[in-house]
Amino acid sequence: MSTSATALNSGPKIVIRRQALVLSGLMSAASAMLIGSMLAIWLQFRANAPLRESSDGSKMLRDWLPENIKIPEVATNTMMLTFVITCVMVQWASYSSRRADSKHTTLALAVALLTEIALINAQVAVYMQMDIGVRDSSYTMMFYAVTATMTTLIVIGLGF
Prior knowledge:
Distance between the termini: 64 Å
Number of strands: 2
Largest sheet: 2 strands, antiparallel
Radius of gyration: 25 Å
Low-confidence stretches: none
Strand content: under 5%
Helix content: 55-70%
Number of domains: 2
Strand order of the largest sheet: 1-2
Structural class: mainly alpha
Number of helices: 4
């Protein structure tokens, strides 16, 4: 009589599902396509603008920006630098999360959240300083379409 028993086969391997990662990838791709298409429309708008002579008369320029509209450079440059800071903080959060460093992950996500709020604040400041209506001209409609789309994506990113 034998006391050994045959072992059962191991069960099927567990498949790790990464729904959040797939959803993040799909949302990122959709957002990139949306912003890319908005910028393509903006560049087409600029390319179709009427021509005018430069102030010294030496060359022809596209007259796509109305003369009465002034873009606040401090707020827009601050937004540009804040985008860079936000990207660095999100990468830091991803890096520290993979290494199970919860303190640095929390800090990086908190700073990213604050910089996203600063981005929204700067965009509202640009709207207030420019003091233009949505239906004033074709330029203002395009301006609000592109910037409001980006601001909406930032707000969605805050919640995600």
